[in-house]
């Protein structure tokens, strides 16, 4: 009987909520990056200054990062990315008369303008562009557009 009573007390004690003593403050959803945005943020330096010898794992991670990856890889191969010098943030860039129009690297959404002096263009060399092209083939072969699939062959 005593062991039954102790088991009952123990199960009730485990069922009660426990307050965390040193809980970290809550993280807002706006600061948590996932998918492609997280891969870009984690590898911003390698993307900005790629080396054919070391960029393979980054390209592989980008290729598996989900929606937006093909467009990002294509923009990178076409030298349409730039890094903001102040914080290293990567954007899709379009040259304008006053500098650059910035776009979100994942969604393509407008992110404003920047002076030419504030952005460092990202220009992968031919070896890196070859690796990017190889990564893009998987997306091109599964594209719903038959012309894209044919072009990948």
What does this structure look like?
There is one protein chain. With 153 residues, the protein is an alpha+beta fold. Strands 4-3-2-1-5 form a 5-stranded antiparallel β-sheet. The longest helix has 16 residues, at 126-141. Helices cover 44% and strands 16% of the residues. It has 7 helices and 5 strands, in the order H-H-H-H-H-E-E-E-E-E-H-H. Helix 4 packs parallel to helix 6 (126-141) and helix 5 (69-77) packs antiparallel against helix 6.
Brief rundown of the structure:
The chain is of the alpha+beta class and 153 residues long. 44% of the residues lie in helices and 16% in strands. A 5-stranded antiparallel beta sheet has the order 4-3-2-1-5.
How many runs of DSSP E, i.e. beta strands? 5
Structural class: alpha+beta
| Assembly state of the chains shown | single chain
**Portion in beta strands:** 15-25%
In DSSP terms (H or I, runs of 4 or more residues), the helix count works out at: 7
Mean pLDDT equals 82
Q: What integer value in Å does the Rg equal?
A: 24 Å
């Amino acid at each position: 009987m005593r062991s039954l009573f102790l088991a009952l007390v123990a199960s009730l004690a485990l069922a009660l909520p426990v307050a965390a003593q040193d809980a970290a403050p809550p993280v807002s959803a706006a600061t948590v990056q996932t998918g492609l945005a997280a891969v870009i943020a984690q590898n911003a330096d390698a993307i900005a200054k790629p080396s054919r010898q070391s960029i393979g794992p980054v390209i592989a991670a980008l290729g598996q990062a989900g929606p937006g990856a093909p467009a990002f890889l294509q923009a990178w191969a076409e030298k349409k990315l730039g890094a903001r010098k102040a914080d290293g943030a990567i954007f899709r860039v379009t040259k304008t008369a006053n500098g650059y129009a910035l776009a979100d690297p994942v969604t393509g959404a407008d992110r404003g303008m920047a002076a030419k002096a504030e952005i460092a263009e990202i220009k992968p060399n031919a070896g890196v562009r070859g690796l990017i092209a190889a990564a893009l083939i998987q997306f091109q072969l599964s594209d719903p557009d038959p012309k894209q699939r044919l072009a990948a062959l």
